[in-house]
Design brief:
Chain lengths: 70, 491
């Protein structure tokens, strides 16, 4: 497996763990404190959506040379 | 009706007329063939692809069900954001491969592709049947949503059944007239409209009731802290189980790209690059859902309470006595949400029934012109069927929908195997789908039989993948697998 693929797969696992268990249960799921006016649980979700965008964008960039179109 | 009701209905009617005009005019230049009607001549660029896939998540559920969930079940609703983070990522990999092989071999539906890979009409038949059964309640839910909105904002002057009929007559007109391009252009228009409206209301309503988003959450932290901590509350108001929450996220991540009306868009895209970029930009659409959570929370503690939580948004607008112009705009936005998902589903399920059910599974060849006619006839038939379910069926649509999702998720192992795994066989894919679908159906009907409180679809899809691998290992693969995978990889 190439480095970029491995990194993306690892990110996906970490992200899933962060959004289900144990990440959400132990760290992100509390109601307090408010982050940018939102409860921590909601801000945590918004943050991971944004982070996933960045992660896939980086992957897209790193593998740019290999995309050829049909 | 009061003057305010007339304004509301007038704004909504103007909006419907604009959609109709845009939807019917947008087919110019499109070939009068199945590839034209179903796959837009494989010509869709980034803007259309972005809105066509994005607007499908802004379904009637987004404007009604989601605020309703936040209002009653609090943080449980965040699972929608949770699966959105990764939900479309499988399509980044599957989509371009499907597009390549689809272009080379002329596929326009996913079942067609899987069936060709395994040379198995039976697979096409099963997938067509499951899609048909899954889409009717889904469509019915969209119609019910449209009817509910019109009834609430007109204080009952437009009954639910009449409202749903008017709105879906418009959808029917443009889906019939222009196929996927009509769906694409109206969804672009509707998507922009919904985003603007969601943010407008999402900031306005909390400030109207609580003086702003942060003050709202401060007050909720003091009065209802249990609403704001994950995983939120179950439907009966007790604390939700982590297993249920986590597995709902995972099943949605796995199954989301398998929904036929999304997956089929691989065959509409101009090229693989467009598909990758569409997936890349998809989370931006997810962020547009944020204000809808805020609206749900803004309803907490409102008196009198709405009849059902799904009505919280229109109920808030009526209770807070906002300007009828704003109510009219909301009404148009909610209709947009219902229509922009309903049209894509309708278009997908009709194409699937004809291409996969009639032609591939039953082996009845159709002349191109007849095929297009058959798809259009089925569009009408499905509207009528879904309308009948929406009006007549009194039971829980959500239960039907849960069953449908559990079934659609079962497509995923077969799709991955078809596009990636040389050793997969027809027997393996079929056995996996049936075993997984069966198990998830059992657990939907009898949730108390589950060994651990997890989403029924998760049990099903796990069994599905296991059976697929085991049965494939002991059956011989089809000789044409290598050629198919070479086409998919573009080598």
């Amino acid at each position: 497996m190439r480095l970029a693929d491995a990194a993306l797969a690892l990110y996906a696992l970490v992200c899933l763990a962060a959004l289900t268990w144990p990440g959400l249960a132990l760290v992100g799921g509390a109601a307090e404190p408010l982050v940018l006016g939102l409860p921590r649980s909601l801000a945590w979700h918004v943050g991971w959506v944004a982070l996933s965008f960045v992660a896939l964008a980086l992957y897209h960039r790193a593998t740019r040379g290999e995309h050829e179109d049909p | 009706m009061s003057e305010a009701s007339w304004i509301v209905v007038g704004v909504a009617a103007a909006y419907l007329a604009a959609c109709l005009a845009l939807g019917t005019l947008s087919s110019r230049g499109q070939a009068a063939s199945t590839v034209g009607y179903v796959a837009g001549d494989r010509s869709l660029g980034l803007v259309l692809m972005y809105f066509i896939t994005g607007a499908t998540i802004f379904s009637a559920f987004a404007f009604l069900g989601l605020p309703g969930w936040a209002y009653t079940r609090g943080a449980a609703a965040f699972y929608i954001l949770g699966y959105g983070a990764l939900g479309f990522v499988p399509f980044y990999f599957l989509g371009p491969r499907a597009a390549r092989v689809g272009k080379k071999r002329g596929f326009v539906t996913q079942a067609e592709m899987v069936a060709a890979r395994f040379e198995s009409p039976a697979i096409a038949g099963v997938m067509a049947l499951v899609s048909a059964v899954a889409f009717v309640p889904y469509l019915a839910l969209q119609m019910k949503g449209a009817g509910l909105v019109l009834r609430t904002v007109t204080d009952g002057a437009v009954p639910e059944a009449a409202g749903a009929a008017i709105v879906y007559a418009v959808v029917l007109a443009y889906v019939l007239a222009s196929g996927v391009l009509g769906v694409g252009w109206t969804n672009t228009f509707q998507g922009l409209f919904m985003i603007a409206l969601a943010w407008g209301l999402g900031l306005y309503l909390p400030s109207l009731r609580f003086g702003g988003v942060e003050p709202m959450f401060r007050e909720l932290l003091a009065s209802r802290p249990e609403l704001l901590a994950s995983p939120g509350l179950a439907a009966d108001g007790s604390a939700w189980h982590w297993g249920e929450y986590g597995s709902a996220v995972i099943v949605s991540v796995v199954g989301f790209s398998a929904w036929p009306h999304l997956f089929m868009k691989a065959f509409t895209a101009k090229d693989a690059r467009t598909i990758r970029r569409t997936v890349l930009l998809y989370p931006t659409f997810q962020i547009f859902l944020l204000p809808l959570f805020l609206i749900g929370f803004a309803g907490v503690g409102i008196a009198p309470a709405p009849q059902s939580p799904d009505e919280i948004l229109p109920h808030l607008l009526m209770q807070l006595e906002v300007s009828p112009w704003l109510v009219g705009l909301f009404c148009a936005g909610a209709l947009a949400a219902s229509m922009s998902s309903g049209d894509a589903m309708l278009h997908a399920v009709a194409s699937i029934s004809v291409r996969d059910g009639w032609i591939a599974a039953l082996g009845r060849a159709l002349a191109p012109a007849r095929e297009l006619f058959a798809i259009r006839a089925l569009v009408v038939l499905y509207v009528i069927a879904a309308y009948a379910v929406a009006v007549i069926y009194e039971g829980s649509l959500v239960l039907l929908l849960l069953g449908a999702y559990g079934a659609i998720v079962q497509f995923m192992p077969g799709l991955v195997a078809a596009l990636y795994w040389r050793r997969a066989t027809a027997a393996g894919v079929l056995a996996g789908m049936l075993a997984g679908g069966g198990l998830s159906l059992v657990f939907v009907l009898a949730p108390e039989w589950r060994p651990f409180p997890c989403h029924a679809g998760l049990y099903g899809v796990t069994l599905n993948a296991l059976v697929l691998v085991i049965v494939s290992r002991v059956t011989p693969p089809s000789a044409s697998s290598d050629a198919f995978l070479r086409d998919a990889a573009g080598r």
